[in-house]
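Record type: ASSEMBLY
Status: queued
Input:
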Amino acid sequence: MAPSGLKAVVGEKILNGVIKSVKKDGEWKVLIVDHMSMRILSSCCKMSDILAEGVTIVEDINKRREPISSLEAIYLISPVEKSVHALINDFKDAAFTYKAAHIFFTDTCPDGLFTEIGRARVAKVIKTLKEINVAFLPYEAQVFSLDDPNSLYSFYSSKPNKDKDKMIENLAEQIATLCDTLKEYPAIRYRKGPEDNARLADEVYQRLTAHKADNPSMGEGADKARSQLLIVDRGFDPISPILHELTFQAMAYDLLDIKQDIYTYQTTGIGNSNDREVLLDEDDELWVQLRHMHIADVTKKVTELLRTFCESKRMCTDNANLKDLSQMLKKMPQYQKELSMYSTHLHLAEACMKTFKGSLDKLCEVEQDLAMGANAEGEPLKDAMKSIVPVLLNNEIGAYEKIRIILLYIFHKKRGIGEENLAKLIQHANIQADSNIITNLQNLGCNIIAGGRNAEQTLPERRERTESTYQLSRWAPIIKDVMENAIEDKLDRKQWPFICDPAPINTTQTAVSSARFGHWHKNKSPTEYRSGPRLIIFVIGGVSQSEMRSAYEVTRATDGKWEVLIGSSHILTPTSFLNDLKSLDQVPNPDC
Amino acid sequence: MRDRLRHLHQVQSDSEGLSSVEHDHLSVHEAATASSPPDPYLYGVLQEAQQIRLEIQQIQNEISELKDANYQALNKISHPAETERDSNAIGVAIKHRGEAVLQRLHMMSALRAELEARRGSSDPTERIAQTQYQCLSNALREVMISYNDTEMSHREACKQQIQRQMEVVGREVGEEDLEEMMESGELNVFSTQVEGKTARSAFLQTESRQKEVLELEKRIEGIQELFLDVAVLTEEQGGAVENIQKSVQNTEVIIQDAVVQLDRATTFDKSNPFKKLFCCCSFDHCKIL
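Status: finished
Output:
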């Protein structure tokens, strides 16, 4: 099943606009990428996709490459000094590294670098030079990332950041390319409070307007006038990134060691390999089906699907070991793909449950009660301290788990806690080494110490939720409320001001055609053309898996009328978030 | 998407007015490309890859042909035209072509290993061979899956026809019972009741379909080993082979190691007392790599 949404839109733009556009029958090309463009490319194209369009090898621009002078090169790079200089160097000496160059910048190339290229030898062999305006990663169909894990530090570190202005400009440009790619010209809003929210929103507005001048079709269409872009800071909901979630994707990324979306596990296959590596992405249809499901439903569903599959292929299976592929594979190797898929998810679910059953079940109960302020029956929590002390004193529970509990306790208290109390908790938990994680949250504007830095900050009022949930999954991310309110046009204008007053919503406009462009949309690819409005949310400092899930849930609830996209500089796991917080009061490692 | 080629030419012509040396540059470039001969292995690898690709495409074409042949067998009892092959013949052709492609892939893998041994794993030709090999292996697997799917749909279609024919003679059979009957070959169970033109026709059709299914299953059985070999091939390459980031980063690690070793070699070399005495340009020698 082909991916849909963001991945499809960007994948199509790159495959058609870049690779196919310079394809010549019978001629192979080399594709050169830098770090950012490689990440973008990798998230929406596969090796076989680009091979099918005449690319025979992908190289990293920043490493020394052997010349392949008989082939032309496609450079898909960001317009930054390092990459541009590497490009120029490829054609500096007498022997050119490649036969010719087709250059595609991810976004606007600054004048200085452009002139450098024009003056260098490489200019003589440049056959193509375009700016594709894609400077973000389509992580999922409705999730984007700007691939900057240092963002939390850049925004919220205790040391002043002198490059902050430049950084905000770059960020704004990246967000603008997202809107450009989706042909959206949304009304921009930001959460009132932190200065950075307003600054970023303003910058995005300026970039967006510049893009629209070059690309007037952005935002065209009656419904598009309702699209909105919301800028929000991480400190607005500090609970969601630290809570233990029990949905498949969030749980797996929290409890297991999954790097770069690759899950590794041991199994017996048909060959000799024991280690299987699987990429968890949208090409895995089963992953798309399961990722937002509660773990209790996952194992049940996969087992049921596997059994049905085996029956339909008349594979006799004994209940003994569904995960043991080798027997089934030997009998029917033509079903290797499907069987591997089932095996992967069975293993993944089992691994999650194993880690969970250790000590997490009790922990999750306490966490949910603290986050909701009430127990599963709806009775308000009377003595929170009583429930957390046993956890803090338990030596088998890890430091980070204890910190998460302490933080949830502090947020439950709404007005922060006294310094003495905090010190006592830290002592009980024996987490002195990591205690700065707690205090550093104040940099995000959270109310930690009663009467301290952020004394007036409180978490927002919550919407009433009546849908039935599992007992250990009662919490819904605060952003979900915001999404629903924005869609229903109930989002308070004082708390979420517009950068620029939006045009009044004209409900009488029906014909979707523009005087200048006629029925421009009829020629668009189906993935790009979405007549309905979009709600795009950008979180400064990282987005959590549960918030990503909310985007899909809210979209589904509108019956497809709205599409909610959410993204940030990077995707958080509870561990990575706590690690980021830990380093906020330190000097950055110059080697990173 | 913004095209800036014209802008580039403008900048070029502005700067060219300042320098009169670019004619030399051009001829130097021509000389340069002429002097470094293209790697013959590279040409060979790309050619072979293209040939294999064409063979796989040919298998896909034969699968389409098979679809037609199966369809014809299902809808007419008469023999197909002289020039058209029957399903069995196509099945044999697909099997042989698939086996041949697999052989060629093994040879490509061997060549790649040889290149790696001789030139190191940072050699571009070796890496191009690797990429092509991995993608072609996947393509072969996909085409074999397509073959399997085609045969399985035909099997289903035959089964449904048998079921319908049995209903015609008033004998309703459930899915599972039908499967059992097909597997045991006991469809002649109702042959004793064959009376009248309709029943007779139904019986003939059923017999025909059953023969189809048996031949189909024999074809699949015959190609089982090829399925297994292709599955082993792709499994050995690992699941994340299609991931571009992995493909680019793997090579990075190798280069970094090489650079580290290079640096070490330079340091050891520098401290070589003989070199110190005679001041050789060993450092430059290492740099060329």
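Annotation: The first strand of chain A starts at residue 29 and ends at 33.
Annotation: Chain A touches chain B through 70 residues (CB under 8 Å).
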